[in-house]
Amino acid sequence: MKSERKLVRGGVLVTMDDELGVIRDGAVLVEGERIAAVGKADELTRTEKVDEVVDARGSFVLPGLICGHTHLYGIALRGSGLKVEPPTDFLQILQRVWWPLDERLDNEAAYATALAASMEMALTGTTCFADTYSAPNGIEGSLDAIARAVDEVGIRGLISFEATERRSGDEGLRGLKENERFLSSSSSRRAMGMVSVHASFTVTDELIERAVELSRRFDCPITVHVSEGPNDVYHNIERYGIRTVERLEGLGLLSPRAVLAHCVHLSPKEISILARTGANVAHNPMSNMLNAVGVSPVPEMLREGVNVCLGNDGYVFDAFENARAAFLVHRVHRRDPTALSAKVVLEMATVRAAGAYGLKDLGSLRPGKLADLIVVRPTVMATPLTGDPYSYVVNGLRGSDVRLVMVGGEVVARDGRLTRLDQREAEERVLRSIERLWEKLGEGPLRAVEPLRGGA
């Protein structure tokens, strides 16, 4: 059967490939699920016969954005108004907000939250993500529920169950077994498996070593939260006499397969260890600001040669917002307007994220790679697209500017509409499930809040 050929023509191609660079008035020829050619629009239009032409004039054409760390179920807390005593540090945020939510999740909620988050990411330009899911009372089969949602929307996902022993050792083993089961038996076309453990302060050495062995056996990524808050560092120093990264190195977790989320509280020695072992880091600037845990030493890691990608940690799913936050927070934190360049930030959301997870066919627009790409047009064309494209993308674009999303040559979103499912019907299913989840949390559907009255 002949593969369908599509030509995305006329845009500014930001290929994120060092050799191809930026191609103005460029074109991408897609044959089946892969990129067949990348070049100037007039040349490809003249020489290639195609079945469909996508007009990208006045737009940027980028590789599909890749989220290096997320919790899809985090979307359930959007606007929830939980009635909890206000937390005063990161550990209390886990104890009062996240862990009570985890304990009330079931497979229905896993599917609903994954569906909602995947829809939002697809519509805003993210074509692949790395997710860790936690539900101690709903472990078995949870990854199948998430994969079903991913397949329905049509984007890609690396998915895993976050093994933890915060309640029992048996619970940690069940979490690893769910990862193993999915890695062994999944038939999903777009969801891939990986291994996850929560954080070093909620797991034993034995569970970490089991997780490392599982990752080696399947030759798949392994991810863990590292030094997000200072409690992780204190825990390891108190119990083991060493810092978090040092402990993980001793247990064999650090390698090019490893992706360490957050890494806010690192010492210079720990950064050197990450560089030496080839371990990757997923930076989550907006979540770190939300939880008030600090600013990760990303510029220092990059200077040492650590590969750093960009994630959202289940907070804001628009990758353009997260990229802009990364671009800005390090400038203000260091009072240095050169702290991170726009090009490096965009690399963190594309080619660096692909490298972190071993996704060799993703992250850039190059012949032979999978045709995951997005077409983004500014809502208002205030300046020409002839200047610095990296700066324009990071400083001037939003997820709502995405006009077309292609995954493996298939258009999964066009002009703000998903192509694989009825968004309104899907939203109704999601809302019914989240309302039930909120009731379990003691928070029913919210009523309108009366405005504050009285003097200023």
What does this structure look like?
The protein is α/β, with parallel strands linked by helices and 456 residues long. The protein has two domains: 5-64 and 369-418, Roll (Urease, subunit C, domain 1); 65-356, Alpha-Beta Barrel (TIM Barrel). The chain contains 16 helices and 18 strands. It has helices at 41-47, 90-102, 107-123, 142-153, 169-185, 205-218, 230-240, 244-250, 268-277, 285-290, 298-304, 319-334, 342-348, 351-356, 389-396, 423-440; strands spanning 5-14, 22-31, 34-40, 52-55, 60-63, 65-70, 126-133, 156-163, 191-193, 195-199, 222-226, 258-262, 280-283, 308-310, 373-376, 402-407, 410-414, 417-418. Strands 1, 2, 3, 4, 5, 15, 16, 17 and 18 form a nine-stranded mixed sheet that branches. A hairpin with a 2-residue loop joins strand 16 and strand 17. The radius of gyration is 22 Å and the shape is globular. Residues 444-456 have low confidence and may be disordered.
